[in-house]
Amino acid sequence: MQVVLGKRGDYAIRAVIDVAARHGERRKAREIAERMSIPPKYLSRILADLVRGGVLRATAGPDGGYQLTRPPRDITMLQVIEAVEGETESRDCLLRGVPCQSGGICAVHQAWVNAESAMLEQLRQTTFADLDVKAELPPSPRP
C-alpha cells in the first residue's frame, strides 16, 4: 500500500521548507520555484493558498516576497497540507466508495480510521523546526 501526498501538498511542503530554511528573510516566488523545482505558475496558486491559510505572509514590491507568519516551531506539516488541500480526513468507505456509515460501516472501517488517525497525529505533531530544512535544500542555482 502506498499513501501519497497530492501535488498541491507536495509543492506546499517544499515551498514552506524553502521559506523556513531562511526564516526571517523574504523569499521571492521565482526563487522558491527555482530552488525547489516547482512550476512557477502552479506555485503562485500554492503560495496564495498558504497566505489565505495563515502560514505565509506576502509583501509586495521590489523588496517583497514571502515569509512565515510565525516561527517554524509553530507551523505543522498538517497545517500546510490542509491550507492547500483542505480537510485531510477521508469521508468515503474504502470498500463501498460512498460516505462512511451510509448503510453501516464496512469490515475495514475501524482499522482504516485508526491508521489514518495515527498518520494525521504525526503530521499534527511535526513542525518545520523538527525537520532539518536546511539539509533538504538543493544547492543555489548559479547566476
Structure write-up:
It is built from six helices and two strands. The protein has helices at residues 7-21, 29-36, 40-52, 77-85, 109-125, 133-136, and strands spanning 56-59, 65-68.
Largest sheet: 2 strands, antiparallel
Indicate the low-confidence ranges by residue numbers.
Answer: none
Give the neighbour order of strands across the main sheet.
Answer: 1-2
Give the radius of gyration.
18 Å
Q: What's the mean pLDDT score?
A: 85
Q: What gross morphology would you assign?
A: elongated
Number of helical elements: 6
Beta-strand content estimate: 5-15%
Question: What's the assembly state of these chains?
Answer: single chain
Measured distance between first and last alpha carbons: 42 Å
What's this model, at a glance?
By secondary structure, this protein is mainly α. The protein has six helices and two strands.
Any key phrases for this structure?
elongated, mainly alpha, two-stranded antiparallel ribbon
What's the structural blueprint in terms of helices and strands?
Elements: H1 7-21, H2 29-36, H3 40-52, E1 56-59, E2 65-68, H4 77-85, H5 109-125, H6 133-136
Antiparallel strand pairs: 1-2
Helix pairs in contact: 1-2, 1-3, 1-4, 2-3
